[in-house]
């Protein structure tokens, strides 16, 4: 298997960025295939921290980085991010960054609508990142999107603007907002167009060439399976498919290109935003894990909700996304706990479930069934070999492996790139 597809197997923030960066030096291209700048991927290299939202995590190691058609792209956010990362000493050119010319744009009107809807939603609030992700995907499917390639044809944008504004002006009126200022929008697009067009191309063609040459492609998922619009905790999800299969459709390669599917799994569970979370801890253990794990959103700075490891959810994610092996991250955050618990099933109205039911109300009522294990007082932080891990940490990892029915390929023991234990190389498997 020459290619590797990295996906989050929980509710996002599992540590995908760190693992993608670690694998990127052995890949010839890193490809983002869904999501947008709702993602926040953190890389720590020799003490220096990089926070990426839209740029693929390969960019820091200089690997060809591709933004595929499945992504929704906010061109102004991209320009800011490129400037920020360049100021940290990373060179970004049309040699190492390619953007699909059929990628739909996130416009200021999408961000407006995201905010207006959330404010109006009351108890039904999803807790989005407010980046306009949902409205942009709606416009893509509704065939009203302005795409990267349109930036080279702004003189003939009028019919598309008619269609886009007919839809948005009606919605905006409902929220008491003025209609879209078409002239201002066109001007903003004109101003940003040269920046984006520098990187724009039919990336499927570039990737086909890369593949033909026998090169290795690393696909970088955003969010996680439980935020998938079909398979996640609907409606408290994002608006794209986050599962591994999207790597193919979101980049323009066939389904056989996904290769080894590496599910990134945190050694406990976190979630940002609203929605069911069976193993959520609202006690001092949760507080402690949140503090030790620095569980604050990379994008919005919101405090992440924290809970015990949920093997039911991860087993389900691994099955749905065809995970070949997992990378278990942040095991060091559990250091020093007297006991650790793993959720092995749910009790719902007197019945035991070995999966998460589909309805949000049932999900919210699921009571976790826990299996307790002794913790470890030794440190795992910075361990780079399996033999360096305390016996009880090894038992915990082995138990997780059994319960989720999927092998552990990597273990991550700190935010630093090289504090990673390799058990099974996804590129040579
Ligand atoms: P992503 O969205 O999946 O890329 O994950 P985020 O970057 O949003 O969140 C993961 C956080 O955990 C980041 O701050 C990482 O630097 C950090 N991190 C990643 N792996 C480890 C690990 O093994 N141990 C610790 N302590 N932190 C880690
Ligand atoms: P990474 O790639 C964690 C969550 C939001 C909200 C829901 C919908 O860093 O793992 P959206 O703005 O997408 O419409 O919000 O999805 N969410 C994430 N949570 N990590 C992410 O990305 C997320 N991207 C979106 O908090 O609950
Ligand atoms: Mg994140």
UniProtKB/TrEMBL annotation:
TM region positions: none
Q: Which domain of life does the UniProt lineage start with? A: Bacteria
GO function terms (MF aspect): adenylosuccinate synthase activity; GTP binding; magnesium ion binding
Subunit notes for this chain?
Answer: Homodimer.
Q: What is this protein called?
A: Adenylosuccinate synthetase
- The organism named in the record is Erythrobacter dokdonensis DSW-74
Cofactor(s) this protein cannot do without: Mg(2+)
| Keywords carried by this UniProt record | Cytoplasm, GTP-binding, Ligase, Magnesium, Metal-binding, Nucleotide-binding, Purine biosynthesis
